[in-house]
Amino acid sequence: MCHGSRRPARGAGRGVTLVSIALLAVPGCSKHPTRPGGPSELHGTPVTPANAVEVAGPMLWSGLTGELICSGPFRAGGGLIAVHATTGATRTLDSLESFPEALAPGGSVVYYDAIESDVYDLSVLARRVALGRTPAPHTLESCSGFCFHFIEPAPDGDLLAVGELSDSLRIYRLSTGERTVVSEYSPLAFSPHSDLLLVKDLFDPLGQARILTLATGSTTPAALGVPDTISGFRLRWGPAGIEVLYVGGDNKSFFLRRVEAGATLRLWASPDTLDGYPIAWSSSGTRAALWSYRPSGTTAAPARRWELHLVDLVARTVRTVAYAEVAVESTPRPSPIARFRSAANIFPTPTLGGLAFSPDESELAYTFFDGRIYRSRVADALATAAR
Hints:
- By secondary structure, the chain is mostly beta strands.
- It has a single domain, classed as YVTN repeat-like/Quinoprotein amine dehydrogenase (Methylamine Dehydrogenase, Chain H, 7 Propeller).
- The strands form 8 sheets. It has a 5-stranded antiparallel β-sheet with strand order 1-20-21-22-23, with no helix packed on it. It has a 5-stranded antiparallel β-sheet with strand order 2-27-26-25-24.
């Protein structure tokens, strides 16, 4: 299973103005191998109408129902929604403002945080809801005030790790309802046999992660071998051991760390700034996707050009899948979810959050600044890279 820094600073309400959006198949060559050299053909398929989803919210793709699980627009309440990847049919899974975090093996259940508030109090609920049936959200636990949960399901489908900002890590056995407090770490990933758990202190760098043995409660250093100064990561723990995709501290380099082999591969040195969140990783581990941006526009009307890249981790080729130029607002606005952060957090520049491969790796879904979900065929992008 893939895992990563699922909790960026929550600036999901960053104001943006969409200047242009286009999806492309890059014909011929260009001065830079990942930049389009001229006019491009639109090939991405819009799945939803404009302003249907929260731009910066995370997104999951269920193999069971073929739905994209994401946050509705916060200005409209931000409920947890499921959007069919082909038809765009949308249903509400939870009416509370929600942030999807993880899918159970097979995509049958989604785990998420939901915010419940009134004029007197605010609670954050760690919840689960089954897909493929009438939604019936179930609350696992809750916290109050400035808090959020880290939720990590195990490959066996029975164990579930739930961490909280200022509380202990709990392990649930879903079949029996048993709940065990094991440490004060945040969960990152279970081992393939679900008997070990990669954890770290919330504020420690990833390189200080530890391996927790569930049977004894003891921990040992994970020795991941990644630098302390990385700007974003995504990790998986499979039969070959722990692997980490990460953006270097310079925000220009993209790496793959294979912990068991003790090898670090530099996949790409970008001329533009790489965004370390989100990073999508295909189920086979052979492809990744991430955003980059660079300044554009004029002094009077500054903008940023955002580009979505598909990275072949085997061939180490990189191609641009989509791009968007977005105006940078001169007057920052408070995040509409500032109440969740305990104080108004100011974000002068936009960000993107939704990015996911289909379970069969044939497609890539992503949110753009117009509040739409788009879907692009991976085969089209790879054919472009081969030209």
